[in-house]
């Protein structure tokens, strides 16, 4: 007889993981919005130092990391939550806030983990289409809030479409949202967003106890292999609730040490952003020259439309055969053939562009 699983297991879709991770074949990995730059040597040294105490459990309250984040962002440590990656905070927020009868509102296509929250809890997911420029339609999202809404997720910049809404729009949204609704603005890519100062949203926390800004060390800091993220919250309520639903030692000692060190290198963050933005501009120009429609990226990746006549899987396969790994748009919610492509180093981006031109049977523009 087969094992009998819970109802929720039938509702929860498996995470659509990118392929290629288990292969030995060297690939240009542009499928997971990772940083192409390895961790800084100071961060690697901090990890090395912390490794000598791995016979001890990590600090369960992540005190030093929360203190450093508090100094960096000016938010009291009691209003900062740490997670085993920011995904951990998202899932725990779902567990703490949602249940059958409750509703969660988010845009679609957006981050592929969001549907998990309703599936796991039995809450109702209300999805709102992006606007014609592949941006969040915050006005339409506001209209979907009801007395049953417990959580709204706003991904800014949005994964997978790379677009961002200006801070003014977020400010107006949170001012209109009822105070009983937790609004999580997922800012995993905020450092790459040039529409506003990435830290300007923090000001909104002062007036809105129901606002949460979700951030991560996985992207610009290049530490996704270690798993550490954080939430800057408008009140102490959410950090407390998150800790109630999670295992005690959710953030490992190496991740805590690395994140503390990474925070001390803000100049490197700025340097990486500048390099990524330079790649964003040159890749955008090359794609435009190939006649490919690209969304206005404010992230470390782009979202390109292949055109109805193309077969997305065939294009991805052609790229893979040329050693380039990207994500197909359909698996991420697109109704039309699309690709999500992370910006890598200049050499990696050249390989992608040459391979794409070849696959699409177009002459390279160089
Ligand atoms: C929008 C968004 N939020 C959150 C995450 C999760 O990042 P992590 O769990 O590595 O912090 C990602 C990762 O790709 C993302 O794209």
- SS-derived structural category: alpha/beta
Arithmetic mean pLDDT = 95
The hetero compounds bound to this protein are:
pyridoxal-5'-phosphate
Task: Determine the N-to-C terminus distance.
Answer: 61 Å
- The value of Rg in angstroms is 20 Å
Taken as a percent bin, the fraction of beta residues is: 15-25%
Order of helices and strands: HEHHEHEHEHEHEEEHHHEEHEEEH
- Strand numbers in spatial order across the main sheet: 2-8-7-6-5-3-4
Based on DSSP secondary structure assignment, what is the total number of beta strands?
Answer: 13
Largest pleated sheet: 7 strands, mixed
Query: Which stretches are poorly predicted, pLDDT < 50 over at least 5 residues?
Result: none
**Could you say which overall geometry the principal axes of the C-alpha atoms support?**
globular
Number of helices: 12
Helix content: 25-40%
